[in-house]
Amino acid sequence: MSDFRADCSRCCGLCCVVPDQLAVQGFRVDKPAETPCVHLNGLHRCCIHATRALQGYPACEGFDCYGAGQWITQRLFQGARWSDSPELAQQMFAAYRYWAPRFEAAALLEAALPHVRDEARCTIAAMISSLTAGETLELPTDAARLRRETLALIRSALTSDEVSKSQEEQAIRAAGSRK
Fold first, then answer.
1. DSSP E strands: which ranges in 71-124?
2. 12: nearest Cα among 86, 87, 94, 96
3. CA-based nearest residue to 68, from 174, 175, 144, 143
4. Does residue 1 lie in a domain region?
5. Is residue 109 situated within a structural domain?
6. If 0-12 CB within 10 Å is exposed, 13-18 middle and 19+ buried, where does residue 176 land?
7. pLDDT: is 101 or 135 the higher one?
């Protein structure tokens, strides 16, 4: 079982507050960044979770923080909630913007791990650990760039004379499906 699974019961709804939501992306209405979704209740839970796609929020159904939300809430902020104070909210929002792409990258690497060459496994495992080590790393702060570099690392770990192009593409698809 993956270490990179969301547990909303241990988070404070960061994914429903921090990112902006645009109707063209699969949200019923636009929502500015750092503004709670109208469906986030006082307990930091989605009150339309079971029917969100039917209610006009199909993008929520496909979203996964890969465990970043609960890690930030529980580990970095010892169970505090963004609604406790405006200062804490800003700190938690910044942490989410920094750590969520790293957890996604780590989840992609974890999904690719069974498919990589044996000699690349240690490198990939070390990268997974460093992505979620709790330290601010010298990694790209741009989420799209981090994703490109992660996929390039996966590609290089797959390629060898023994690995066919179809096996490589299959592993990249498997890793990409984790998004």
1. none
2. 96
3. 143
4. no
5. yes
6. middle
7. 101
Task: Give the mean pLDDT of the chain.
Answer: 86
Largest CA distance in the chain: 56
**pLDDT at position 81 over 80:** yes
CA distance linking residue 161 with residue 176, whole number of Å: 23
Tokens (6 digits) for 70: 């609960």
Q: Rounded to the nearest 5 degrees, what angle is found at the Cα of 177, between the Cα atoms of 118 and 13?
A: 115
Ramachandran category for residue 121: left, alpha or beta (phi over 0 → left; psi -120 to 50 → alpha): alpha
* Matching residue, tokens 């159904």: 61
Number of domains in the chain: 1
Q: How far apart are CA 4 and CA 66, in angstroms?
A: 4
Is the sign of the CA dihedral 132, 133, 139, 141 positive or negative?
positive
- Give the domain extent around 114: 8-176
Find the DSSP H helices in the chain.
58-61, 68-70, 86-112, 121-131, 143-158, 165-176
CA distance 171 to 177: 10
Q: Please, are residues 171 and 154 in contact by the beta-carbon 8 Å criterion?
A: yes
